[in-house]
Design goal:
Radius of gyration: 22 Å
Structural class: alpha/beta
Oligomer: single chain
Number of strands: 16
CATH architecture of one domain: 3-Layer(aba) Sandwich
CATH topology of one domain: Rossmann fold
Strand content: 15-25%
Amino acid sequence: MTPLLAQLITRIQREGPLTFATFMEAALYDSAHGYYGSGRARIGSRGDFHTAVSVGPLFGALLARQFVEMWEQLGSPLEWTLVEQGAFDGQLAADVLTALRGFSPGCFDATTLRLVEPLATLQDRQLEILSGFGAQVKWYSCPEELPPFCGVHYSNELLDAFPVHRLRFAEGGWREMRVGTDGTTLEWVEAHVEEDAVKRAASLLCPRELGAFAEVCPEHASLLEAIGSKLTRGWLLALDYGMSDAELALPIRRDGTLSAYSEQQRQADLLSNPGAQDLTAQVNFSALARHALQGGWTLEGFAEQHRFFTGLAPLHFQDATAPLTSAEQSALLAFRTLTHPQLMGFQFKVLCLARGVERQLTVAPRGEESCPPASKNGLSGLALARNAEETLFGGLGSGSMGPVRVASQ
């Protein structure tokens, strides 16, 4: 029996069955034994899973192109903040800053990068990778510690790692699946939904068939509230795997989307080996967008990753008639991986929210690259996106949202 399993069994015997969110919090973020908290997590070909950062620096470079365009659309402010939350080892942040320094020195000089990272083990890794950027990088343990800023809060595969509550639809409504014990192993226990935030989240879900499972994450609303209280002008850009609530309600997903991964393989038992495997769930982007709209955000856009990066491609790739260099060939291969429908292109989505944005278009300083005219009516990454309101809320029925503010494109 592992130390974390023993601790959880003791806690359940003392307090009673735990919500899955409480179990997931411990399994992932316990400072001594959690999958992320202990530093056990590994990403890449030798790790437990791949991310877009694993593909190479192109991912960060394309995001940097979007950040420069955002900076220019707000009038190229002298103080520009990028906030990354869930930066893992800091490689994406390094790729973004390196790209900015290369193709937009003006934006780079205006930029302060603020990393939100509560785990000391990951702060140490980030500090090592980002040491070359000196005082331009600052750390905070939670969004509430951030100073007010103009810029962008961005994340890659952050939201799927937030602890979720697991629910089952039964006669009479939603029931909560908690984690109990027989004294030696962990087991599922069905119970009433007790927390008001979970009840509210469950009440807004699309109807499910009897016996179907679903996940809700009230902490997403708390995150949006915290960031919204600090962001004076700018955007939130979240890249993650997930779908609309209507898609999540389809019979093919009656078991929910909770998953466990270890050594690139999906594991059958969510409760076994707490701390030794990753736990994750598809992001309900409809619920996330609903929280945002109720909190005063504007829905700037929503797109599959392949549409987002294809929209940004003209900012980064030049039409070439000469043979490609090896570096250009590598970048093209990475682009195909990021956008291929059977790889990352369709599975990952991009949600963009805005706050206090009044665009002031300016021309880039002499010697720096500027956005092409096609991007001037909105963000290039969203130029190919479908209608966000229809995609996210079209299956929920009329009148379920109330007033919706969607940015014009």
